Known about the structure:
Shape: globular
Helix content: over 70%
Number of strands: 6
Strand order of the largest sheet: 1-2
Order of helices and strands: HHHHHHEEHEEHEHHE
Distance between the termini: 52 Å
Amino acid sequence: MSELSKRVWVSVIAAPLALAIVFVGGAPLAGLLAVASALAAGEFYRIARAAGHEPLADFGCALAGLVPLAVHAHYLGLYEPRFGGLAIAVIVLMCVALWARGSNGKPIAAVATTLMGAIYTGGLLSFAYALRYHGYAVGGARVGTFEIAAGGVVLGLPVLLTWATDIGAFQVGRMVRGRKLMPTVSPGKTISGAIGGLVFAVIVAWLYTRYAMRPAAQLVFSPAGLVVFAVVVSVAGQIGDLFESVLKREAGVKDSSRLIPGHGGVLDRLDSLFFVLPVAYVLMGWLLIPAPR
């Protein structure tokens, strides 16, 4: 089977499954985010080692996976986040670095890289759960016997905009070509592709808001707000992709791993979402308005 065939088959199976879990929410969503965060953190630490760093990978993967579960527990009313808990986690990490690495094992770099990996993956990806259960997401819609929660519809928007940006950038960039966007970081990306991604994102945002968010979540954007949201989210996704590219370029690796056939690693698939989800969370709090009756 060719790499393209593998890529298509994985997308056909994984994309609907991921969207289904997004709409269901709850423990399945928290579990998916926890597993994805831990795997992505492991791939980040692999890249870091290739770049000459020595993170405490086991501790970092565990911490990354625990963050979405802690967010889930918070929304269930079982756990109230406190800065004290974060401080204890950092102190434990420092103690592990002290005993495992000592002064000759570059403990400063080990602690910094480990924390960065956990925050970059588990911390940023947890905003998916926060979007799914944000206070503005009230109500839902029924399609036959299947009920779609408003929160799932809201979370679906930044996810779809990320995919729309990728598709638009790839298709337009391949047809138009032209000047490179950041040739030293990602030689295949062009300015025309970046603009194409923005345009696709605005179109998808308008369609999704009109035919999904409005009827299912009773939420819309103003015309200007919709454009601002789509453009900023699209830009965030493209920057997220470039950020992972520069990490891999520093380390001299092509993919974060070969875990997903035809797609590389989890980090390769989620790099845009790491930036998109927190940006979307903030913007939705500012820009979403109740749909007029």
